[in-house]
Design brief:
Residues 96-405 form the Tryptophan synthase beta chain-like PALP domain. Helices cover 38% and strands 14% of the residues. The chain is of the alpha/beta class. It starts with 13 loop residues before the first strand and ends in a 6-residue tail after the last helix.
């Protein structure tokens, strides 16, 4: 058995593997890029194949049983400890309630509009209101392990962010406390007030620089290369491991049958789509799922380097080039040079070898379709962010192109809570988008409060007359009829 008591006995042997030159490095050091070639890493458990000694039914039953556990270390993303980071000890696991976010089916009206059945997986219901908490739970658990093992007295965590990463990093750093401190670097004026408030509220040092996310990322990379800091962007391979839990949860929710399932994921820094492909590949490798779901990455026309790469049909002719971004309502995806692109390429090649042609695709959508995707979803009872709107726009485009059939079920990634991006909704309703967004509000999507009685009436009428007049105005506006 792999479990003794509640917590697993299994401990893997993990190594950093460079996707550029193949060099391997010990995990007892914090690495973000390869010292030899500057390539990005994936983390590999060199004893992973030993898990195949147990049949798929064993793993399915084990993960299902853990769904009811009271053991804190197994309640979050580490429910899948053996598949995630099996070198982490129970005492080091950080759990703030992340993971196991709900899958909510589109209602009949929305399903009819889109033309196919689909679900939103609401990752905005994570602790800091975004999917980033999955990766941070893993990254901070391993960092806590290193702090304990090395008796470090001070560790500064840093990240570049358009909002969600900084909120999550600051939250987890505040919870772990002790020697761990948090600093975040943001593009000045490019983060919503709601997202800026989060790291400030968690007590992080918040530093702003002019430019966009890519500029912030260069600063953070310089710091990580030259100073002793813990980088928490998706270059951190431990974060990618934590985000694989999204795939594990989808499989578990679907009773480990992902046949004729499509998963739509927005591509920003490309860490999440990397993790989701990696997670499904692990499940397939152990036979826990019999077939891979199809993966659709979605990018805006305003930040589309991955789409441009895969739009070239012949693989040998593809050339990756960063792009200059223009403003996007899918703010977290407004990245012109995603650091995890080499991981996307690595896992997409594996994915297509097993899943066949069409098992991994990238779709490009307009800003108009993204914002209206969010508004359409939320008018039908969801809590989608703009990135979730991007996914709905991607699904609708895929249906139009004949890439998704009515007999398939799609799962859309709503990466954050819509309240983080409420400013964009307000800009749509008030027609105040700057021209560079290329968005023109349509009346059928606009909503605004209506005043039914004047301030002068409130001041001049008696309380009883005010109530009666206000109520009558509501009756007239809503077309109410009396009880008969």
């Amino acid at each position: 058995m792999l479990t003794g008591g509640d917590f697993p006995k299994y401990r893997g042997r993990m190594e950093y593997v460079c996707l550029g030159c193949g060099q391997r490095y010990d995990i007892r050091e914090l690495y973000y890029t390869c010292p030899k070639c500057s390539g990005v890493f994936v983390l590999e458990d060199t004893t992973f194949d030993s898990l195949a000694e147990f049949p798929p039914s064993y793993w399915q039953s084990l993960f299902d049983k853990r769904a009811a556990t009271r053991t804190t270390g197994l309640r979050g993303i580490f429910r899948y400890h053996e598949l995630t980071a099996p070198v982490v000890e129970e005492q080091d696991i950080v759990y703030l309630g992340e993971g196991h976010t709900p899958m909510v089916a589109a209602n009949d009206a929305l399903r009819e509009k889109v033309g196919v059945p689909f679900f939103y997986k609401n990752d905005g219901q994570n602790p800091s209101a975004s999917f980033k908490d999955r990766g941070m739970a893993c990254a901070f658990s391993y960092l806590k392990h290193l702090v304990r093992a090395n008796d470090w007295d001070s560790v500064l965590t840093v990240c570049a962010s358009t909002g969600d990463t900084s909120a999550s990093a600051a939250l987890y750093a505040a919870y772990v406390g002790g020697p761990i401190k948090s600093a975040v670097i943001l593009p000045k004026g490019k983060v919503t007030p709601q997202q800026l408030a989060q790291p400030l509220g968690s007590g992080a040092t918040v530093l702003e620089v002019p430019g966009v996310f890519d500029d912030c990322m260069k600063v953070v990379e310089y710091l990580a290369d030259n100073y002793r800091v813990a980088l928490l962007n998706s270059k951190n391979a431990w974060r990618i491991l934590g985000q694989e839990s999204y795939a594990f949860e989808i499989a578990q929710w679907r009773a480990y049958d992902t046949y004729r399932t499509c998963v739509f994921v927005p591509i920003g820094n490309a860490g999440n789509i990397t993790a989701i492909m990696g997670g499904f590949l692990k499940l397939k490798r152990l036979g826990i799922i019999p077939s891979l779901p199809r993966i659709f990455g979605v990018q805006s026309e305003h930040a589309d380097p991955v789409y441009r790469y895969y739009s070239v049909a012949e693989a040998k002719k593809r050339r990756y080039e960063p792009v200059a971004v223009t403003p996007s309502v899918a703010q977290a995806a407004m990245i012109g040079n995603p650091v995890s692109f080499p991981r996307v390429k690595h896992f997409a090649e594996q994915y297509e070898k097993i899943g066949g042609p069409g098992s991994f695709q990238v779709i490009r959508v307009s800003e108009q379709d993204i914002i209206e995707g969010m508004l359409l979803a939320n008018r039908h009872g969801h809590i989608s962010c703009t990135q979730g709107g991007e996914c709905l726009a991607g699904l609708r485009a895929a249906v139009t192109l004949g890439l998704v059939e009515p007999s398939e079920e799609s799962i859309l990634d709503a990466t954050a809570h819509h309240l983080k991006f409420i400013g964009f909704q307000d800009m749509y309703y008030t027609n105040t988008f700057p021209p560079e967004y290329g968005i023109t509000p349509r009346p059928e999507f606009v909503n605004a409060p209506e005043t039914v009685i004047s301030d002068d009436d409130k001041a001049s009428l008696s309380p009883a007359d005010y109530t009666a007049k206000a109520a009558q105005a509501v009756v007239t506006r809503l077309g109410l009829t009396g009880r008969g």
